[in-house]
Write a structure and sequence with these properties.
GO molecular function: DNA binding; serine-type endopeptidase activity
CATH topology of the largest domain: Umud Fragment, subunit A
Family: Belongs to the peptidase S24 family.
Helix content: 10-25%
Protein name: Repressor LexA
Number of strands: 12
Keywords: Autocatalytic cleavage, DNA damage, DNA repair, DNA replication, DNA-binding, Hydrolase, Repressor, SOS response, Transcription, Transcription regulation
Organism: Candidatus Woesebacteria bacterium RIFCSPHIGHO2_01_FULL_40_22
CATH class of the largest domain: Mainly Beta
Amino acid sequence: MSSLNVLTKRQEQVLKFIYTSIKSSGYPPTLADLREELDVSSNQAVLDFLKILENKKLIKKEEGAARGLKILKKGFEVLGVKTLIPSLGIVAAGPFKYSMEDLEWKEFGDAKITDDIFLAKISGDSMIGAGLADGDHVIIQKSQEFRNGEIVLARDNNEMTIKTLVSDNGRSYLKPENPKYKNIPIYPETRLIGKVIGKIGGKRK
């Protein structure tokens, strides 16, 4: 779908404004920004437009977040523009390290991109044996199922790391692909967020 026939003029205005805000500033607009753009006085009027776009599966709204708006793949197709996907910023490829979660958005033209895809920029050299070097942007797919040997993004509270998941005789741990680093145990509070399925500028080795 490449036309805007599915939208009214006002709905089109809202969707385009969300896209322009993300592309130019790196952030979705706030309700106040949208009120000003639409020249309306109430948040409810804005929320009504957002609900319509969400029902059309063009955007997703995260409750409780001031800028919790995401354009879905269908929304980019309707606008006729390349997909913008979120990037986590810097994620450690060493021991657990705090992740800079000021999301950036990067233009991505791959037709295979889906709504559960995001990017993460690697910091460190613990995964060089898997072809993931310091500064690489990796493509991560959110998942709830993980298999032995997959490279995963793991989170422990507000700290993240990318490692190979190893399950050995009932024991699971996160394995670096560099002999300089030690394995990382998986604790009850550890959460596996997604799996690395590729990287920008080349395939994983």
